[in-house]
């Protein structure tokens, strides 16, 4: 065998210059590095969501007079826009003289939820999602998250929307 | 012709430690992914104040991963092994 042929390295040595003893350790360490980087990305995602939530929570919205208390009998709903002109919301006057307000946007696919007093439920006609009117919790159908609540307070004869609950 | 340089072989305690770290790390990553989806669920559900707690949990897991990386810092192995020399 000539010296040239003896000195020529096999291609696989150039492509993968690790001894078999250290092969496993290298691959596992690289996977560990990747896992830690991915972990950092997941942490960054969670932190971003916390910051977005904080920013949304901190943004002040102007209080809005929704309806006169005496104009909304028990078992009736009043539909309004809050906090923006495109945000559909509803004020419910429930038995027990309880007032609650929620965003009308269904947490499944954002259809408009309506109040059905005869069945004591909030109903989304798109996919037959059902919510509990006192809490906004989903009780049937595809929605898994509660309706977004709206903080309200009574000011004299008026119910006023003041923002999201603390 | 000089004798080939033997590679640094992992000591007996390193391999189980790396395997254990990998296993625990992957389980924790799955937990972290669940935390992320739960945080998104809370954010979209109008409960952003609770997302901070999940962020702290996620951060602790990430810090643990960094700690494991520091613990398993590779020693200097010298030149790579060339089996054909």
Secondary structure topology:
The complex is a heterodimer of chains A (166) and B (85).
Chain A: H1 3-7, H2 11-15, H3 20-58, E1 64-68, E2 76-81, E3 88-94, E4 98-103, E5 114-116, E6 121-124, E7 129-131, E8 138-140, E9 151-155, E10 158-163
Antiparallel strand pairs in A: 1-10, 2-3, 3-4, 5-6, 6-7, 7-8, 9-10
Chain B: H1 14-44, H2 51-71
Helix pairs in contact in B: 1-2
Features:
heterodimer; A: 166 residues; alpha+beta; Rieske Iron-sulfur Protein; 3-stranded antiparallel sheet; 10 strands; 30% helix; elongated; B: 85 residues; 61% helix
Description:
The complex is a heterodimer of chains A (166) and B (85). Chain A is built from three helices and ten strands; from the N terminus they run H-H-H-E-E-E-E-E-E-E-E-E-E. Chain A is of the alpha+beta class. Chain A has two domains: 3-57, no CATH class; 64-163, Rieske [2Fe-2S] iron-sulphur domain (Rieske Iron-sulfur Protein, 3-layer Sandwich), CATH 2.102.10. In chain A, a hairpin with a 4-residue loop joins strand 5 (114-116) and strand 6 (121-124). Chain A is elongated and about 105 Å long. Chain B has 85 residues and is mostly helical. Chain B has a domain at 15-72. Chain B has helices at residues 14-44, 51-71. In chain B, helix 1 (14-44) runs antiparallel to helix 2. The termini of chain B are close together. In chain B, 21% of the residues are buried. Chain A binds chain B through residues 9-10, 13, 17-19, 21-22, 24-25, 28-29, 31-33, 35-36, 38-40, 42-43, 45-47, 49-50, 52-54, 56-57, 103, 107, 144-146, 148-149, 164-166, and chain B through 7-10, 14-15, 18-19, 21-22, 25-26, 28-29, 32-33, 35-36, 39-46, 48-49, 51-52, 54-55, 58-59, 61-62, 65-66, 68-69, 72, 74, 77, 80-84.
Could you provide a short overview of the structure?
The complex is a heterodimer of chains A (166) and B (85). Chain A contains three helices and ten strands. With 166 residues, chain A is α+β, with helices and mostly antiparallel strands.
């Amino acid at each position: 065998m000539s010296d040239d042929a003896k000195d020529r390295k096999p291609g696989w040595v150039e492509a993968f210059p690790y001894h078999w003893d250290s092969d496993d350790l290298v691959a596992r360490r690289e996977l560990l590095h990747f896992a830690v980087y991915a972990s950092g990305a997941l942490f960054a995602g969670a932190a971003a969501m916390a910051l977005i939530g904080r920013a949304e929570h901190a943004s002040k919205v102007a209080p809005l007079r929704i309806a006169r208390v005496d104009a909304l009998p028990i078992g009736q709903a009043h539909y309004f826009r809050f906090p923006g002109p495109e945000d559909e919301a509803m004020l419910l006057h429930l038995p027990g003289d309880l007032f609650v307000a929620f965003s009308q946007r269904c947490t499944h696919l954002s259809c408009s939820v309506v109040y059905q007093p005869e069945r004591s439920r909030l109903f989304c006609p798109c996919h037959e999602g059902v919510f509990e009117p006192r809490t906004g919790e989903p009780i049937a159908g595809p929605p898994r998250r509660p309706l977004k609540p709206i903080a309200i307070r009574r000011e004299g004869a008026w119910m006023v929307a003041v923002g999201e609950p603390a | 012709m000089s004798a080939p340089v033997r590679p640094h072989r992992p000591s007996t305690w390193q391999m189980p430690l790396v395997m254990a770290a990998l296993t625990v790390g992957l389980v924790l990553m799955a937990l972290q992914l669940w935390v992320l989806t739960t945080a998104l669920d809370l954010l979209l559900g109008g409960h952003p104040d609770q997302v901070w707690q999940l962020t702290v949990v996620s951060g602790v897991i990430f810090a643990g991963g960094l700690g494991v990386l520091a613990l398993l810092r590779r020693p200097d192995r010298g030149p790579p092994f060339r089996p054909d020399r």
